[in-house]
Amino acid sequence: MLDTASETTLLSVRGLSVVADGPDGPRQILEGIGFDLKPRQILSVIGESGSGKTVLARTLASWIAAPLRVTAGQVLFKGRDLLADRAYARGLAGREIAYVGGNPAGALDPTMTVGAQLVEKLRAVRPDISASDAKAKAIRLLQAVRIPAAERRFHEYPFQYSGGMMQRAMIVDALISDPALLIADNITQPLDVTVAAQILKLMRELNSEFSTAILFICSSLPVACDASDEVMVLNKGRVVERQTPDRLTAAPQHAYTSALIAELPTLWQEGPQRRRPAATEKPIMSVRGVSKAYETRGKSGKALVQAVRHVDFDVFAGDNFGIVGESGCGKSSLMRLLTGLERPDGGQILFQGEDVGAASARRLRELRREFQLVLQDPYGSLPPQSPIGAILEEPLKIHRIGNRAERRDRARAVMSEVGLHPGLYESLPTGLSAGQRQRLNVARAMILEPSLLIMDETLSALDQTEQGKLLDLFERLQAQHGFTYIFISHDLTMVRQVCSRIAVMYLGEAVEVAPNDRLFFDPGHPYTRALLSAAPTLELRRYRPEDCLLEGEPPSPIDLPPGCAFASRCPQAFDRCRSQNPALLSRGGQALAACFLNPTNEATHV
Amino acid sequence: MSSMDITSAPPEIARERKVSTRIWQQAFASVEFRIGLIVLTLLIAAALLYPQLSGIDPTKMNIKAKLTPPVFMGEGWTWAHPLGTDQLGRDMLVRALVGLRYSLLIGVSTTVLMLLVGALIGLFAGYFGGRIDTVLMRLTDAQLSIPMIILAITILGVSRPTIPSIILVLGLAGWPVYARVMRSTVMAERKKEYVRGAMVLGATDWRIMFTLLLPLVLPPMAFVAVLDIARMMIFESVLGFLGLGVQPPTPTFGNIISDGRKYLMNAWWIATMPGVFLVLVLTSINLMGASLERARNAIYGGA
After folding, report:
1. Rounded-to-10 torsion of CA A146, A150, A154, A155
2. What's the CA angle centered on A350, arms A344 and A353, to 5 degrees?
């Protein structure tokens, strides 16, 4: 009877419960999980952080340790219970059941070439295979996941790979033993949207080519729906719903799923839109032809990384300005220039008419009272071991404002303004959640009453609900204090919600600067279209990834090709794009784009 | 944790107290800390007060009472000399306690000196990097390449060994290790986002170095330095033993051990007593240091 069952189901989970032992007794993490997975099937598991997704993935991969403990249930793999037979389960792990995590950089051994690691893995699993066969197989798989020049890349070290390539290498590492089941735990999380879209497409192809069943763990509903045949929704350790993506989004059965869907911000549909402030005519910050290059030491001596190239835009007072782009596009370098942490090689950054890039150190310190930065990492951006009150008073002390009592009152006032209980004044930030930490960061930035706040990926570490709350907070603070915001982000849906004007960056250039609606409904640059096509959304897409983006990754910013930087990935590129670089020119109605396809665009600069 | 109510009051009222107060309170709550504190206080009080109060001169000889064993430890012991006497009939308790004064003075001030010098040099080298780093670190390497004992013999052999010169020599020989550790810690911390955050707020380099980084990286080093107090006290004994320490008849641990060496077979207590006091002092300091560190880690939660 077991044999017949194993032909139709590969993996069958029955009543699985896992607890975490803690000082207050065991805490239930998973409760009565049950599902079946057929060969070749892709099943997504989604849920917010803390729902037990990763614990589920690791339980199936026989990779749980104290304080986690399985209290009940069965995990039948081809009819045999993995939980009852630990030795059998260990034998399967890495062979029949492969696991890929979301941190490829941490999973690869930095001291070995990628190829050597793959061969080592394969030969550990299959001792009978010869070294040359193993190498051939590794290269074939590297080609299958579209690593360019796989034979050369085989001999390279992980640090020579980009994030997307490392993730592909990890997939190869998992697939090399021909597993029957692949557990993909948040594999697209750290990747850029265009790269993540390619990985998802790749995963589907591999699924049909190698007939591997995939359990796809993910925290984003749109990504899960894109990736899989069926979606299983997990909430607080229980399965609340299991459906095909279409049925799930069209007719969710459970209130939790409906709430999850309703909460998703939309790109094109009219949802509950936020108020976008109307742009005034007075620029508060003007960026004029700003460039920055960094020197690095490569194999052939010194090389220049062109991080920011001739960026131009104006930010108007009271406005929400967005800067979007993928990793490596120069957003962070631009942020360092805008905040005066570094000085540009060329061009001007005018803040209220004064050049930040040329200001003296003393003048820059004075100017900093007027523009502040809120950093990305909620954990690394707060000084460790400082109590919350001291963190908030630090800016006041730096600028010698007020006496001890006044600073204390001001800190408490700001705390309640951002929604932190003033009773936390003497507490350390250790106990705060990521969202609370970002509130603290915002409080620290606004205690000096600046006029411009630069948000560097401030919300990217937070989940959807928390993002929404913070956006409400930003809106309220803007109404009260008249702040101008610059949002630097990779998240199109967030920018769509709050920004009135948006600059899109690609390889150090602003390729398009346009008002919000214009950018999303009538983008003037092929790269913008590619970004839009790859954005995770449940909506009917206006652009399909296949039409917008060629295979491959951005060229290296060290040796940029002549002409348009996007030409190598642009489906519409023609000869002129490869020799001349289009300038950022007006398309009318405040929209600017740098593409030869736009009719008014004639001028060029190199 | 996102479901947590942001504006909810903190669970414990205790949080309203200052962090440093909480650390001391938590450390004080541990038995080890109290034992260490009591033993150390008693020892220091005895070292400071007993020689004066008892009126016994540590250098006064009494040949008739020479080599008296400690109480209960052999024939002829007397309550007049609880720890016995040495080969010249000098009272061992007074001598050991006076020796402890010198040892503590030299051990603690040497450690503080080398910690401060090392931390400052490491802080500058690690924070500014580049040329400043190169110069300071080559200086450190140069210092590190000279063995401590040879340096001490050279300097103290030429000049007269006084207490300040001994402190200076030992401190000079010890700082490079701290400079190294400090430099690498500061280099790692400097790259973190909160340092960039402080720069954006307008903090000067000086402020970042001394109000942000130093309080953060100095305490863990200070806990290590506690162990070095022991090392330095032992080094002082070694110098004394070599005749390069504080000169006899002043009783330092080194001098006492050096004297007692010849009588090790029939009067073991002379050479042993300094060791007993060293063990007591160092154990109590370590007990306190360890519970303080534990309290710090518990309160900062590893941050």
Report:
1. -140
2. 150
CATH 3.40.50.300 domain position(s) in chain A: 2-263
Residue-wise pLDDT for A42-76, tens only, equals 999 988 777 888 889 888 888 887 778 889 898 99
Interatomic CA distance for residues A384 and A144, integer angstroms:
45
The residue with tokens 């800067």 is A323
Residue whose tokens read 């030409």: A567
Domain of residue B262: give its range. Answer: 19-55+66-272+281-300
Amino acid at position B101, single letter: R
Q: Taking the alpha carbons of B89, B93, B97, B102 in that order, is the dihedral positive or negative?
A: positive
**Count: domains in chain B:** 1
Peptide bond into A67 cis (omega under 30): yes
Is residue B11's pLDDT more than 50? Answer: no
Say yes or no for a CB contact (<8 Å) between B201 and A341: no
Burial of A304 (0-12, 13-18, 19+ CB in 10 A): middle
Determine contact, residues A370/A451, Cβ cutoff 8 Å.
yes
Q: Which chain B residue's Cα is nearest to A50? A: B1
Q: Residue A280's pLDDT is what?
A: 62
pLDDT in tens, B134-143: 999 999 999 8
Q: Mark yes or no for CB contact A368/B198 under 8 Å.
A: no
Euclidean distance between CA atoms A183 and A453, whole angstroms: 41
Question: CA separation (Å) from B163 to B97, B225, B254?
Answer: 17, 20, 13
Model-wide pTM > 0.80 = no
Domain A2-263 class, CATH top level: alpha beta
Query: Residue B87 falls within a domain, yes or no?
Result: yes
Instruction: Please indicate, yes or no, if residue B176 is contained in any of the structural domains.
Output: yes
Q: Does ipTM exceed 0.85?
A: no
Q: Is residue B12 part of a domain?
A: no
- The interaxial angle of helices B214-241 and B148-158, nearest 10 deg, is 60
Q: Which of residues 204-263 of B touch A (CB under 8 A)?
A: 204, 207, 212, 215-216
- Report pLDDT digits (tens) over A534-556: 888 887 778 877 777 777 777 77
Q: Do B202 and A395 touch (CB under 8 A)?
A: yes
Please answer whether residues A506 and A527 qualify as being in contact, where contact means their C-beta atoms are separated by less than 8 angstroms.
yes
Domain of residue B39, CATH code: 1.10.3720.10
Would you call B212 and A426 a contact, using CB atoms and an 8 Å cutoff? no
**Is residue B237 within 8 Å of B253, Cβ to Cβ?**
yes
Q: Is residue B61 part of a domain?
A: no
